[in-house]
Write a structure and sequence with these properties.
The protein is mostly helical. The protein has 9 helices and no strands. The longest helix has 19 residues. It is globular, with a radius of gyration of 13 Å.
Length: about 130
Amino acid sequence: MGILDSVTQALGEQAGGGLADLLKDQGGVGGLVEKFGQNGMGDLAASWVGKGGNLPVSAEQIAQVIGSGPIADFAKSIGISPEQAADTIAGLLPEAIDRLTPGGEVRAGGDVFGQITDALPGGLADMLGGFLKK
C-alpha cells in the first residue's frame, strides 16, 4: 500500500475529493506539471510522470507552485490547517501524479475524476467514486 492509499484511508473520502479538486483547479495533471516547470522544478514533476522513482517535494515547494489560496481550500475541504495541507499535498502528489500517468505520459483531457478513479486500486476507487462525482 502506498502513501496515497494510506493517507486517503486515514483522512477519508475528503482527501481524494480534495486532491481531485486541487488537480482540476490547477489545469489537471498537465497544467500542474507545467506550473512546476515554470517554477524551475520541472525535474520533480518529470520524475512523477516518468517510469522511474519519484523525487520528493517539500511543503514549501508545493506552496511556491500551487499558491496559498488553493492550499487553504484543500485544507478547509478536509478539515486541517494550511500547513498540514501543504505537507499532505507534498506527500500525496508524487504518487498521485505517478498513478495518473501509468505509461509515463500525461493524458489529454480534463477528466480528473476518471483519471483518479482509474488510477486507484479497485476498492479505494469504488469508495471514492461516489464522493468524487458530487
